[in-house]
Amino acid sequence: MGAKTALLVFADGDTRPALRGATRSELSETEALVRQIHPGYVVEPFDESTLFDDIYPPEDITYATKLAGAELYCDRRLVLDLPSELPEHLREAGAGRRIIMHGMHSVVDWLSFAVWEDGLLIRSLSLSPDGGIRENIGKPYDFELPYWAGEHPVEPVPGWPDQGPYPLPFHPLALGEQALRALFGFVVEGHPKSDDIDAEAVHLHGFRVTDPSGEEQAAREAAYAQVRRAMGSPRMFRMGPDGTMHEVSLESL
Predict the structure, then answer these.
(1) Closest by Cα among 53, 238, 157 to 246
(2) Residue 44: strand pairing partners
(3) 177-199: b or e for each residue (b if 16 or more CB lie within 10 Å)?
(4) Mean pLDDT, residues 209-221
(5) pTM of the shown model
(6) How do residues 191-201 score in pLDDT, each as one tens digit?
């Protein structure tokens, strides 16, 4: 799976009708909304895209649109490992409405999604195989139940060495796709259904959004450097004649 998402929506109710009837929003109106969710930041028009193409945009980029009954933002900074820590200014921006967060990252098999109703956190789930269940608040939705019941276990990869049981009862990205369909009406991988929303038809305005102090960028680079140090030297594997994977020395490549 290669799915990645970084999605935050403020909606009057069900988000799906707003996306299904999406039209192109006004640039100036959308820019004003982006300035509201990033107070004090420098906001500059960047380019145009679609929900399918930039549901996980580059760093310092926000894609957004204003729909009938919903405002949608794609931005890595708006999706949290602990959704319950949603900043107060975002809670205020979505006051009296439904707030939905959805984030996935295929490199680490991470999923995070959450729903607020009228300021109250109804459901929050954040988990990954390495980090475990970081947050699990509220009653699971019906689309989650088969996964928690063990009906979608992760099967071992044939030929891969040193495999133990997958540390979670399901693959986070598999549940993440179900959450995306249930909450937004489409998927980014897998088999689309005939009544799924066409995410490529949802136009987004892009903006470069940067911290003028440079503190956010510096903190991000420091975090990346820490991750690189923790990862150490990369390991390389090659498939042998018997179909199993064997580690190879980097010097031999």
Answers:
(1) 238
(2) 208
(3) bbbbbebbbbbbbeeeeeeebeb
(4) 85
(5) 0.86
(6) 889 999 999 99
